[in-house]
Specification:
By secondary structure, the chain is mainly beta. It has a single domain, classed as Porin, CATH 2.40.160.20. About 5% of the residues lie in helices and about 60% in strands. The protein has an eight-stranded antiparallel beta barrel. A two-stranded antiparallel sheet has the order 1-4. Strand 5 and strand 6 form a beta hairpin. The longest helix has 10 residues. The N and C termini lie far apart (about 40 Å). The relative contact order is 0.20. The N terminus is likely disordered.
């Protein structure tokens, strides 16, 4: 009987959320989009929530390229500390892509997966380098996928 109650508590609203006193994190990023072919500039604004879902940090963000493409997404981040100043973050998101006059990726629904190497500069500021792959996972007939390489500045404990 205990197992049933434990499972019930996990599915209650907020039951999966870790109640931590942390505030969110704002990430500003700049880099390159489509490393394999027509490399162009891109910029990203991302918010990482302070509250966790199990061990995952919910994220939302927008990315825009210099040729007018845009991508809005939501997903999760998972950080693995390496020592006191270095960590590695893995993230996965799904979102809507609008090509505008930019690169055709096959459809609106696109998935983003990536890795970051994060350096703690101060207790509230981090610098990271990220590599992401953006693709529709072959949901559409055309799936060229693109990679991004970016410099990121994290502002911790905002909002």
């Amino acid at each position: 009987m205990r197992m049933k109650w434990g499972l019930f508590l996990l599915i209650l609203p907020g039951g999966l959320l870790a109640h931590t006193p942390q505030k969110g994190e704002l990430v500003l990023a700049y880099g390159v989009f489509d490393l394999r072919k027509n490399t162009i500039a891109d910029a990203r604004l991302e918010y990482r929530f302070g509250q966790r879902l199990l061990v995952f940090q919910p994220i939302v963000g927008v990315l825009a390229t210099s040729d007018g493409s845009r991508y809005s997404y939501a997903g999760f981040n998972y950080a693995v500390p390496l020592n006191n100043v270095l960590s590695v973050s893995l993230n996965l998101a799904a979102g809507a892509y609008g090509k505008g006059p930019g690169k055709e990726l096959g459809g609106v629904l696109e998935f983003r997966s990536g890795i970051e190497l994060v350096l703690l500069l101060t207790s509230k500021i981090q610098l990271s380098w990220s590599f992401h792959h953006l693709s529709n996972a072959s949901l559409y007939d055309y799936n060229p996928g693109v990679e991004t390489l970016m410099y990121n500045l994290h502002f911790r404990e905002v909002f």
